[in-house]
C-alpha cells in the first residue's frame, strides 16, 4: 500500500460521512409544524401536483404521510451518522445546518412604533421599509439582528431586553414619544405571475410596550 493509497483512504473517511450528512434528510419531525401557514401553503402546492396523477389527499392525510416519512428519514440519519459523531466532534467538521432550503412566503418583519400620550401609534421602523427607517443602521446590524431574529416565532429570553433597548433608542431620538411598541408582523408574499401580488399583513406576534421612564 502506497502513501497515495493511505491518503485516498483518509479522504474517503472524511468525505463519505460528510456527504451523507449534507443530504437533505429530515433531522427531526414535529406533526404540528405541518400545520403552520408556510407548511399549509407548500402542501397545497403539492396537493395540486398529486391531483394531476389522480390522488387528491386532504391536508391532514398528506401531512400525516410526510410526517411518517420525515420520522423515518430522521431515524435513518441518526443511525448512519452515530458512528461518525466522535470524529466530527474531534475534528470540528460536519454538516451542521442548511441555508435557505426553501423560500419563506410568510416572513416576519420587525416593527417599532411610538406615540405621544394617548395618540395613535406611528410607525418608526419596519424591516426593509424605506419610509420607516428610524435607527435602521443599528437594527440591520448583524449582531443586533442576531439578538431579535430568533424571536419571530416564539418570544425567547432575549426579546424583552431587546424591546427595552429598542424603546430607549426611540425615546432618545424623539423627546415627544411617551410609549413605544415593538412587535413582529407576519407578512404574506407572492411570486411573480400569481393573481394576488399585494403584500399582506397576516398578523402580529410578540408585541411589547415600554413607557418613557
Sequence-ordered SSE layout with sheet pairings:
Blueprint: H1 3-21, H2 37-52, H3 59-81, H4 85-91, E1 108-115, E2 122-126, H5 136-139, H6 142-148, H7 159-173, E3 179-188, E4 200-211
Antiparallel strand pairs: 1-2, 1-3, 3-4
Report on this model:
There is one protein chain. This protein has 213 residues and is of the alpha+beta class. Helix content is 43%, strand content 16%. It has helices at residues 3-21, 37-52, 59-81, 85-91, 136-139, 142-148, 159-173, and strands at residues 108-115, 122-126, 179-188, 200-211. It has a four-stranded antiparallel beta sheet.
Describe this structure in a few short sentences:
By secondary structure, the protein is α+β, with helices and mostly antiparallel strands. The chain contains seven helices and four strands; from the N terminus they run H-H-H-H-E-E-H-H-H-E-E.
Notable characteristics:
213 residues, alpha+beta, four-stranded antiparallel β-sheet, single chain
Structural class: alpha+beta
Helix content: 40-55%
Our count of helices gives 7
Number of strands: 4
Q: What is the N-to-C order of secondary-structure elements (H for helix, E for strand)?
A: HHHHEEHHHEE
Tell me the strand percentage band.
Answer: 15-25%
Describe the global form: extended
Instruction: Give the strand order of the largest sheet, numbering strands 1, 2, ... along the chain.
Output: 2-1-3-4
User: Roughly what is the average pLDDT, rounded to an integer?
Assistant: 87
Rg computed from alpha carbons, rounded to a whole number of angstroms: 24 Å
Largest sheet: 4 strands, antiparallel
The span between the termini is: 76 Å
Low-confidence stretches: none
Amino acid at each position: 500500500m502506497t502513501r497515495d493509497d493511505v491518503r485516498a483512504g483518509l479522504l474517503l473517511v472524511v468525505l463519505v460521512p460528510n456527504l451523507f450528512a449534507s443530504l437533505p434528510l429530515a433531522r427531526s419531525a414535529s406533526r404540528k409544524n405541518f400545520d403552520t401557514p408556510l407548511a399549509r401553503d407548500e402542501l397545497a402546492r403539492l396537493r395540486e401536483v398529486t391531483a394531476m396523477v389522480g390522488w387528491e389527499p386532504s391536508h391532514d392525510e398528506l401531512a400525516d404521510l410526510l410526517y411518517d416519512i420525515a420520522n423515518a428519514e430522521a431515524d435513518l440519519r441518526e443511525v448512519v451518522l452515530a458512528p461518525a459523531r466522535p470524529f466530527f466532534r474531534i475534528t470540528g467538521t460536519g454538516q451542521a445546518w442548511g441555508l435557505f432550503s426553501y423560500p419563506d412566503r410568510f416572513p416576519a418583519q420587525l416593527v417599532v412604533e411610538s406615540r405621544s400620550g394617548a395618540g395613535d401609534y406611528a410607525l418608526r421602523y419596519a424591516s426593509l421599509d424605506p419610509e420607516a427607517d428610524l435607527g435602521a443602521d443599528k437594527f440591520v446590524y448583524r449582531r443586533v439582528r442576531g439578538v431579535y431574529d430568533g424571536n419571530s416565532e416564539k418570544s425567547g429570553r432575549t426579546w424583552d431586553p431587546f424591546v427595552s433597548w429598542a424603546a430607549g433608542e426611540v425615546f432618545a431620538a424623539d423627546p415627544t414619544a411617551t410609549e413605544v411598541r415593538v412587535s413582529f408582523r407576519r407578512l404574506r408574499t407572492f411570486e411573480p405571475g400569481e393573481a394576488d401580488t399585494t403584500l399582506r399583513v397576516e398578523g402580529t406576534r410578540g408585541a411589547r410596550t415600554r413607557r418613557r421612564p
